[in-house]
Amino acid sequence: MNKRIGVFICHCGLNIAGTVDVDALREAVGKIRNVVYVKNYIFLCSQPGQEMVSDAVKEHKLDGFIVANCSPTLHEKTFRTIAIKLGMNPYLVEVANIREQSSWPHSKQPDYATKKALKIIKGTIKKLERNIELYTQRVGLTKRALVIGGGIAGIQAALDIADGGYEVLLLDRKQSIGGHMAQISETFPTLDCPQCIMTPKMTEVAQHPNIKLYTYSEVEEISGFIGNFTVKLRQKARYVDWDKCTGCGECIAKCPSKPLSEFNRNLCKGTAIYRDFEQAVPSYPVINKEACLYFQKGVCRVCEKVCPAAAINYEDKDIIKEEKIGAIIIATGYDLMPIQALGEYGAGKYKDVVDGMQFERLLASTGPYAGNVKRPSDQKVPESVVFIQCAGSRDPETHYPYCSKICCMYTAKQALLYKHNVHHGKAYIFYIDIRSNGKGYEEFVQRVQEEEGVVYIRGKVSKVFKRGDKLVVWGADTLTGQTVEIETDLVVLASAMIPSTGSLNLASKTRLATDKFGWFSEAHPKLRPVESVTGGYFLAGTAQAPRDIPETVAQASGAASKVLALFSNEYIESDPVIAQVDPEICNRCGYCESVCAYGAVKLNPKTRIAEVNEVLCEGCGACAATCPSGAISHRNNSRKQIFDMISVATENYDQITTKFDK
Amino acid sequence: MEEKREPKIVGFLCKWCTSAAADLAGTSRMQYPPSIRPIKVMCSGSVDMSYILRALLMGADGVLVGGCHPADCHYLSGNYKARRRIAILKSIFDTLDLDSERIELKWISASEGKKFADTVKEFNDKLSEKGPNDFTKSWNL
Ligand SMILES: Cc1cc2nc3c(=O)[nH]c(=O)nc-3n(C[C@H](O)[C@H](O)[C@H](O)COP(=O)(O)OP(=O)(O)OC[C@H]3O[C@@H](n4cnc5c(N)ncnc54)[C@H](O)[C@@H]3O)c2cc1C
Ligand code: SF4
Ligand code: SF4
Ligand code: FES
C-alpha cells in the first residue's frame, strides 16, 4: 500500500484552470488520506514543471505520485521517465485525466468540472494506493528466422532478412521454391515474364550466404515462443543424394514413367523423377514414389543407371531436423478452388473448361505447347475463348463470399495475351464488375477493352454445355437485359483463391488464428497487418488473403522489417502490465486458457495450475474477468483496485464551493 | 440534495477506443452531462460482471460499458466477451425482475467523440426519467 502519495495539479494555462477551480481542488485533494503533498503548476509538462515534480518527489520522499493533467496518451510517458531517473518504479506514477475528461467537456458547468476533476483524482489515488512495482522481463532471443513457404512472398522476405545480416531458413514443401508465380506466363500490368523477374531472385536465394534452403520439407512441430522457438522440420525422402547430384537432368530425360505434371496443372505429362520446372531452385530432382516404376513394380532403376554422379538412393528416408528460431514468417500462399465444384460451368466434365492457372500454362512459353495456345481436348487452336470471372468468388450462397481480388486483372491479361497469340481469335469476358484498383491497372483494363477488342459482357453465366466439338455458354447481359449465347472452343474459369492446402493443419501446429476460410489472421486489420496474433509470427503474401504480386512483395518486405526490428534487440523486453496467477488459489479449471486470445496462459501439464507466459501476454485482462476463483489478476488493474475506484465513482459529488459558484 | 436528480453513471471505458473517444469529445469541446464517472479499463473484455454489479449495488443509477466496434478490439475479441457477459447479466436481471436497462454496452471508436457525448446524454436522460436506482433498498453489500 502506497501511503506517501503526491499529487501535482496542472493548470494547463487556462485549459484546466479556466474551468476547474484549481485552488479549491488543491485544498480538497490535500485532505485525502495518504496524500502527503499537493502542488499546482501552470504547465507541468514544461521543463521547470518537470524539475519541480522531480524535486518534490525527492524532498517529500514520495512513494508514488499522480499528475492531474491531460490524457495519459500525451504525458504518461514523460512523468514515468522522471520516475525512472529518480530511481522510482515508473508504475508508481499515474495520470488523472482532468482536461479531456473534465475541464473541456464540462466547460459550461465549471462547478461540475471541478467536482468531477476531484472525483477523477480520488479514483486515481485509490488505484495508486494498491499499485505495485513492476519490472519488465528480459529474455534472450535467437536471431534466426524461419520462412515457411517459398513463393514470391517467402523469397522476398528471406532475401530482406538475409540482406539485413541474419540467418534465414527458407522452407517449401515442394521440390523448388517459386510458388505460383513460377507458373504464370506473364504478369500484369507490365507483362514481364516471371523467368525474367523472379528467376534472378531465386538464384540469389540459392547463393546467399545467410539463407539455408529447406525444400521438399515441412514443419513437423513448433514449440516455444517469440525469440525462442524450437522447430522440428521433416525433410522428405528425395531418393536423390543432393550432395552428390549435379542437376544435369540425365535421369529426368531417361525416366520411362510419365505421370501428369503437377506444375503444368495436369495438362501434360512429366516424369517420376522430376524437378518442378526447368529453372527450379534447387535444380536437384526428387523421385515421386507413387509414380516410380521401381517403387511400384520393383523394376526399372533407369535413373540409377544413367546418373553420372551415383546420386540415386532408393533407400533414402525422411529426416527430422531440429532448429532454433527467433521469428517465423508464414508465407504459405494460396491454391485455387477445385473447379469440379463449379458443375454449372461444365467444369470437371469437359476438358476444355479450364481454370485460370491452367490457362497460364497454356500461354506460357515453358508450358505444354511452348506458348502456342491449344485446347486440351484435341490440341486445336481455339478460335474463341470465354472467360468467366468471379467463378466461386463473391458467391456467399454456394461458395466463397470474398473477392479473390486478382481475377479481374489476370483475366484481362490472359485475354490480351490470347489475342496476341491467336490474332483472329475472339475473347469474351463475363464479369460482375471490374476491380482494377492498382497502379496502372485501370489503364491496363482500358487498353484491353479498347485496343485489343476484347468483348466485356456484364452478367452471369448460367450454363456451359457441349454442342458438337464446341462449348456453348449461356448467360445474361445485365446491361442490355438480353440473354447471350456464345459458341466457343475454350472456357476459362477465374476460380476463387483459397488458402493453400494444409493451412489449417499448419495453423493448428503453430496455434495461429485464421479466419473461417483458413486465411491467417493479422494482429490488427488496420494497424498490424503483417504481424500475426501470436508474438514472433509474421504474415506475408497470400497466406493472409488474396492479393497480387506487388502487394505480396510489399507485405513480405513489411514482415521482414518487423523481423529485423525484432532482431535488432539484444533481448525481448515485455510489458509488465499483464496477468498474474496466484498458484495457491488457482483451481485448475482452465477457463483462462480458453479465453486468452494469445495462447498466453496455459495450464502446466504437470501441476495443472495456470501459468502466464509473460512475453506472450498482451495484458487485456480477459482472463482475470473470467477466472471463477479470482486466481488470475491483472497487474495494477486488480479487482481490489477497480472496486476501490467504483466506491469513489459511486459516492455523491463532494460539496466543494468553487469560485465559480459565487 | 446535491444531485438535483442528476443520475450517477459509472463508465467502464476501454483504453483503446471508448476512453479515446471521450478524450476526443473533450478535445472537440463537446459538452455532455458530468453525471458520468469514467473508469478506464484496458479492454471491455476485462470488465468483470462483478464490477457492474458492484457499481449498481453501491448506488450507481446506470453502468455504461464502452468498447471498440466488433472486429476492432485491440485485443481481438475482448468486446465479444463483453457482449456475451453483458447479455448474460442482463438476462439474469430480467429473470430477477431487476431493471436491465440500467446496463448499457456501446461500441464507440476512438474517432467517435460525438457518439460518446451523445451516448452519455441519452443514457443520462433515460436514467433521469427512470429515477434513482432502488437496488440498494433490497440488496446490501
Ligand atoms: C491464374 C493466375 C494468374 C495470376 N497472374 C498474376 C499477374 O499477372 N500479376 C500479379 O501480380 N499476380 C498474379 N497472380 C497472383 C499471384 O499468383 C500471387 O499474388 C502470388 O503468386 C502470391 O505469392 P505467395 O508467395 O503469397 O504464394 P504462393 O505462390 O502460393 O507460394 C506459397 C508457397 O508456399 C509453399 N507452401 C504452402 N504451404 C506450405 C506448407 N505448409 N509448408 C511448406 N511450404 C508450403 C508452396 O509450395 C508455395 O511454394 C495470378 C494468380 C492466378 C491464380
Ligand atoms: S491478460 Fe489477456 S493476453 Fe494476458 S493471459 Fe490474460 S487473457 Fe491472455
Ligand atoms: S481460470 Fe483461474 S482458476 Fe481457472 S485455471 Fe485459470 S487461473 Fe486457474
Ligand atoms: S480494447 Fe476496446 S474493446 Fe477491447
List the helices and strands and how they pair.
The complex is a heterodimer of chains A (662) and B (141).
Chain A: E1 5-10, H1 14-17, H2 22-30, E2 35-41, H3 47-59, E3 64-69, H4 72-85, E4 93-97, H5 99-103, H6 110-129, E5 137-140, E6 144-148, H7 152-163, E7 167-172, H8 194-197, H9 199-207, E8 211-215, E9 217-225, E10 228-235, H10 250-254, E11 273-274, E12 286-287, H11 293-297, H12 302-306, E13 319-325, E14 327-330, E15 334-336, E16 353-355, H13 356-363, E17 384-391, H14 407-421, E18 426-431, H15 441-450, E19 455-458, E20 461-467, E21 470-477, E22 482-488, E23 490-495, E24 497-499, H16 503-510, E25 522-524, E26 528-532, E27 537-539, H17 549-567, E28 571-574, E29 579-581, H18 591-595, E30 601-603, E31 610-612, H19 622-626, E32 632-634, H20 639-650
Helix pairs in contact in A: 2-6, 6-20, 7-9, 7-17, 13-14, 14-15
Chain B: E1 9-14, H1 18-27, E2 36-41, H2 49-57, E3 62-67, H3 78-95, E4 103-107, H4 113-130, H5 135-138
Parallel strand pairs in B: 1-2, 1-3, 3-4
Helix pairs in contact in B: 1-4
Can you offer a commentary on this structure?
- The complex is a heterodimer of chains A (662) and B (141).
- Chain A is built from 20 helices and 32 strands.
- Chain A is an alpha/beta fold and 662 residues long.
- Chain A has 4 domains: 5-134, Rossmann fold, CATH 3.40.50; 144-328 and 534-567, 3-Layer(bba) Sandwich (FAD/NAD(P)-binding domain), CATH 3.50.50; 334-498, FAD/NAD(P)-binding domain (3-Layer(bba) Sandwich), CATH 3.50.50.60; 575-635, Alpha-Beta Plaits (2-Layer Sandwich).
- In chain A, the strands form 11 sheets. Chain A has a 5-stranded parallel β-sheet, with helices on one face.
- The model of chain A has no long low-confidence stretch (mean pLDDT 95).
- With 141 residues, chain B is of the alpha/beta class.
- Chain B contains 5 helices and 4 strands.
- Chain B has helices at residues 18-27, 49-57, 78-95, 113-130, 135-138, and strands spanning 9-14, 36-41, 62-67, 103-107.
- Chain B has a 4-stranded parallel β-sheet, with helices on both faces.
- In chain B, strand 1, helix 1 and strand 2 (36-41) form a beta-alpha-beta unit.
- In chain B, helix 1 (18-27) packs across helix 4.
- The radius of gyration of chain B is 14 Å and the shape is globular.
- The two termini of chain B are 24 Å apart.
- At the A-B interface, helix 5, helix 6, helix 19 and helix 20 of A face helix 1, strand 2, helix 2 and helix 3 of B.
- One iron/sulfur cluster binds next to helix 18 of chain A.
